[in-house]
Design goal:
Layout: E1 4-7, H1 13-23, H2 38-47, E2 49-56, E3 59-69, E4 72-80, H3 89-103, E5 108-114, H4 120-126, E6 130-135, E7 149-155
Parallel strand pairs: 4-5
Antiparallel strand pairs: 1-2, 2-3, 3-4, 5-7, 6-7
Bound molecules: coenzyme A.
The site of coenzyme A has 17 residues, from strand 4, helix 3 and helix 4.
Length: 162
């Protein structure tokens, strides 16, 4: 597939919302409501940025949020259109987030996973992330089944070092 990764622009917001909610439907059994909406994405564009994976102009196949604070990157709402999963798009988005964070001088990249999503732990481990903390889920009103977040982190060595 010939898809390019670029920084999202405000006009991408509806597509980011569409792809994210479609992908996160897998969490409907444990978290109620949709994962995001236009106001949420717009607000997060002020705090950080989204990268999108675009096949043809305006057709977004995947997206990811990233923000930086105190020398650490945070990766959130990694989502790939279910019709395009299993083709390495998420991996390319994670690699692009890592590159962005390295450029910005970050020493680590963090993300968080709902503990019930057992399949994601080996997925992120393969990408170099290890569990580093257990955190409460921040939006209790959405919780259907008791759950918490597991923070996973990766050290971002400078590119020239092993
Ligand atoms: C998780 C997600 C982003 C992965 O997207 P993707 O584009 O299918 O992932 P990739 O194709 O880059 O996967 C890379 C590798 O991980 C494997 N993989 C992908 N999703 C996996 C899953 N859910 N469980 C186990 N392995 C998985 C792929 O088979 C591939 O393995 P390979 O390199 O040996 O072939 C996608 O399934 C998704 O959007 N899920 C819903 C939202 C979500 O759960 N986001 C993460 C929340 S923390």
């Amino acid at each position: 597939m010939n898809a390019a990764i670029r920084k999202a622009r405000p006009e991408d917001i509806p597509e980011i919302v569409r792809v994210t909610n479609l992908a996160y439907a897998v969490e409907a059994y444990c978290l109620r409501g949709e994962r995001t909406d236009e106001a949420d994405v717009r607000a997060r564009m002020e705090e950080g940025l989204f990268l999108v994976c675009e096949e043809t102009p305006g057709r977004i196949l995947g997206s990811v949020f990233l923000s930086i604070a105190e020398g650490r990157g945070y990766l959130g709402t990694l989502a790939v259109d279910p019709a395009c999963q299993g083709q390495g798009l998420a991996q390319s988005l994670v690699v692009a987030v890592e590159a962005h964070c390295r450029e910005a001088g970050c020493t680590h990249l963090d993300l968080s996973v709902v503990n019930l999503r057992r399949e994601l732990f080996p997925y992120y481990a393969k990408l170099g992330f290890l569990p580093t903390a257990v955190l409460p889920f921040p939006r209790e009103e959405k919780v259907i089944t008791p759950l918490h977040l597991v923070q996973m982190s990766k050290a971002l060595w400078p590119r020239e070092e092993p």
